[in-house]
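We modelled the chain as a single entity of 178 amino acids. Its sequence is:
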Amino acid sequence: MVAARHAHPAVAANSRACRGPVCVGAALGFSGGEGLNLMAESPLRVLALVTDAFGGYGGIAQYNRDFLSALAQCEGVDEVIVLPRAGASSPDTMPCGVRQLRALKGRLAYSFAALERARAHRPIDVVFCGHLFMVPLAAVTAKLLNARLWVQVHGVEAWQDLSGLHRRWSNGRWWSPQ
């Protein structure tokens, strides 16, 4: 169970992050109790779109390494495929169950690569979005794969005013008529 902090006025009032305690399993769309229940019919495959992780430096890279390593160790998760925008192309060591693809710089190259790699590594059950500004790409990828979308929000960008596009896409309403 994860407790949400007080909402900042810039964060959409109807955002799931502002509604108090959130069961991680429920946030991923899994049923069955309060805990993280990953007992799916088949092991889950996660595509993680992140700024950096393995081979990267700094707090966000470290957080992503810790989170993705822990996720890969969850019962019911088969593989976590990481596509970073920056970082070492060949990190020295990778945890069991985690595969990091080559980092790609440049928004357009990264976007095309994310869509192509998502298609090539099907089936993907969950698309993990590690940065708020990657939400449009992650949402399109999840929609094309019929996968769940999990958006992680952290850092200063979470407290700034978001464009209407980012608000709609991070709330899962981008495909609905307004």
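As a brief sanity check on the tokenised model: Residues 1-23, 32-39, 174-178 have pLDDT under 50 and may be disordered. The chain has one domain: 41-170.
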